[in-house]
Structures are given as structure tokens and as C-alpha cells.
Amino acid sequence: MASPEATGVDVTKQHSFPKDKIRILLLEGIHAAAGERFSQAGYTVESLPSAASEQQLLDVIPEIHLLGLRSKTQVTKRVLDASTRLLAIGCYCIGTDQVDLKMAASRGVPVFNAPFSSTRSVAELTLAEVVMLARRAAHRSQQLHAGRWEKSAAGSHEVRHKTIGIVGYGHIGPQVGLLAEAFGMRVVFYDTAKKLPLGNAESLGSLDELLETADFVTLHVPDTPSTRGMIGAEQLARTRSGSYLLNLSRGRVVDIEALRDALVSGHLAGAAVDVYPEEPQGRTGEFDVPLRGLDNVILTPHVGGSTLEAQRNIAIEVVDSLIGFTDAGATTGAVNFPEVELPLLQSGHRVLNIHQNVPGVLRDINQIIADMGANVSAQYLSTLDEVGYLIMDVDAGLSRQVKHHIDALDTNIKTRLLF
Length: 419
Fold this sequence. Notes:
By secondary structure, this protein is α/β, with parallel strands linked by helices. It has helices at 32-40, 54-60, 77-81, 101-106, 119-134, 137-145, 173-182, 207-213, 233-238, 256-264, 308-328, 361-372, 399-407, and strands spanning 24-26, 45-47, 66-69, 88-91, 111-112, 163-167, 186-190, 202-203, 216-219, 243-247, 268-273, 297-299, 349-356, 376-384, 387-394, 412-418.
């Protein structure tokens, strides 16, 4: 194996990114706590208040190392193909369907989100809307704004002793259940994966069973091929007459036209919707859905996680994940990437190698190490689907040569050094 010197490689060249050279772009008005957190860690940040179109991203992405966004900016294959320097993406929300996750992984770009920080905010709004629907409070408010005083108990109910059915028992569902129990409600849930019930919640065996059981059906599922359109005319027909539907998950989960039909017919007593199949890109965008004008429907503009507390917590959670990756190579919590984390580097240099997940990669890398006589103080490999991720701490004097030879492997996707 030829040495780097023999091939003309400058082994003194720095490969660890200086913090002042890392360009960070945050879109969609991410909470100021994100910029503060980055600044405390020695980074500088550019923040923009609005989402970016694909063309706008294509114009800037070649110079960006870390990209932060919320739910409206779409990171497509074209954007990722143009992202020659991109190290990682932070989704400052729960959902990650706005990013082409598989393509990002194939480019060696881990994607981090905030699965925990806004759960309480979404759960609180869910329960608030349950009560508002049961009491027809939103309709009463509209009447008063129109100058009509119609004090009546007609159609108003307590939620105590009613059954709430939670579809999706991940991060938000259990919190909804615990709050509902505090209101004296019976809690049932359905999830495709086996989940440990919290409190007195009861797991049901099928979605149909839940729809036929619950007085309030609330959806807390991600946007995936299996969940898109999961609530259509057939499912709505299975719900109890006079029941309610709440969707604070993803807009494409519910067939909006079918939901309108169920509401207009009187089969459903009401609905609360926070997410929509198509959403305006900004405050000036047009909002037009078939549910507008129905007095038994609460419409909110995708604000389930939009509290100051949640947005601050989200900012800190995602920034900490991004800093953990740039500073130490940690991918714990990445949604599209093997999860690897080693203690902070104490001595030597750290090699971060992202490669195609095929047999023989670790053998080839260890052969490089053996041929050079380099000492390895720590090594950890993890794989996910088509991508493998190796963290390896090696002698400082040989790290650049190791990186050079790993770069030359056909299986290499991306390799960088940390000092």
C-alpha cells in the first residue's frame, strides 16, 4: 500500500472543521434559543423567519454544513444532490417526512428531530379541544361574536366517563391518555406495535375495534405510506354515531372530503383539525378546506406544538443533537442513521466513517490500520439498512493517512476527522 507521501497527499492538511468555518442555516423562525445554544458552543448561525422553496435551497445548500427547519421546508433529492458540504439536518419538530430520509442517509447526512419536547403541548391542546367539542364551546363563541345570545345545554356534555380512543401510542398518545384520565375518562388505544400502557389505558386489538368503542377518536401517528388515508369513509362509518374525531398528527392521515360528509350527515357530532393535506407556506397564503364554515368543527393552523415552552425545548433538543454530531460524531436520536456514540475524545484523533453497508468494510478498514501499525483506542460500528457508521479513535500522527486510505475505498460515502 503506497504511503500518502508517495502519492503526493499533504498529510498536514487539516480535516477537522474549525467552528468558525461551519455555516449553519436555520429556517422557519426557529426559536432564538437555538442560536443562543450554538453561540455558546462557539458556532455562528444565520436565521431566516420563513420556509425556503426548493430553488431557494438549491441556491444556498452547497455552502451549508448544518441545516435547520420545521415542517414546511422540503429537503428533496435534488437539494441533497446539491449539498456538497452538508453534515447533518435538524428538524425542529416531531415529524421528519419533509426530508427525503433515505436519500439523506445515502449521502451520509443524519437527520435529527425533537420527538419529546412538544408532546405536552400537543397533549394539552388535544384535551382542550375534547372539552370544547363536548361543550360546543367554539360554536357558542362564534354566536356571541355574531351578537347572538343562545344560552342552552342542548348538545353539551361532560367528558367524564366518556371513552377516548388514541390511535398511535408513541410519544404523544400516552400523555393524552394520562391527561384524559385526570378528567375521569376511560382511555383505550391502538398501535401497530406493542406498547406498554400508562395509567389505566387499555390496548385494543384493531383500529376498527377502537373506532367502534370510542366517543372521541384522536390521531397521533406519523405520515407514512401505511398511515396516509387511514381514516376514510369506511373507517368513519365504523365510528359511533355522535362521536368526535380529532387530528393533530399529519394532514394526509384523514380523507377531508369523507370527514366533511360524516359531519354534514350528523354521523359525527364534531371534529377538531390542526393539520391539513395542503397547508399555506406563510401567513399570506390561501387556506381553503372543505371543513370551513361547519359550526361543529374546530380548525387550528398547525399549532399543536406551538407554545413558547415547546419551541424553546425543541430548539435546545435538536441543537444539542447537532452539536453532539459535529463535536463528537454522536448520532444518538438520528431517525435515518445508525446510532453510535462514544465518550468525548480524550487523546488522538477521531475518524468518522460513513460507508455502504456491505460485507467486508470493517475488514478493509482494519487492514489499513494494521498495515500502518496505528493504535486504535476505541472503535464502534453500527449499521442501518444500506448505511454503516464507524467511529474510531486512532493515533494523532497517523489519522490523516488513515483517512486518506479510507477515502479511497469503493465503499466509502463520507469520512471526516475530529481533533
